[in-house]
User: Which sequence fits this backbone?
């Protein structure tokens, strides 16, 4: 089973009506998480450019489906202004280091003030420090 243990760099993007069609949703984030033996994930996502903004991350590793989908993650971020965001992503094989890509959806009170239901891509890249 894959693991999220460690520190990750978080980036997310949202739709834009103009050019370019995607713009940063949030400033770069720092994710620190642990994964237990059952695949349960717990951690914190902070945004150094926004002092005090911290999201509690919970969720799980999702198993691969042979020949169809790689292992993935189902995560929930809760925090600032009672916000709730859902992340659904997949581990990408063959990268230089661990990488997860997927979709984030604003469920409630997005810290960046995006409407509920807004969704866009995100990426997590594991750091070595």
Assistant:
């Amino acid at each position: 089973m894959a693991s999220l243990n460690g520190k990750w760099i978080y980036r997310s993007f949202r739709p834009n009506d103009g050019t370019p069609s995607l713009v940063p949703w949030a400033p770069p984030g720092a994710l620190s998480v642990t994964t237990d033996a059952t695949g349960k994930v717990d951690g914190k996502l902070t945004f150094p450019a926004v002092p005090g903004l911290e999201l509690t991350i919970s969720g799980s590793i999702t198993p691969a489906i042979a020949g169809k989908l790689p292992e993935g993650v189902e995560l929930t971020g809760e925090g600032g202004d009672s916000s709730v965001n859902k992340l659904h992503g997949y581990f990408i094989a063959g990268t230089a280091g661990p990488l997860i890509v997927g979709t984030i959806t604003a469920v409630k009170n997005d810290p960046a003030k995006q409407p509920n239901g807004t969704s866009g891509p995100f990426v997590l890249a594991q750091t070595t420090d």
In short: Strands lie at 6-15, 22-35, 40-46, 54-62, 72-79, 83-91, 99-108, 119-126. The chain has no helices and eight strands. The domain at 6-126 is CATH 2.40.128.30 (Lipocalin). The two ends are 23 Å apart (CA to CA).
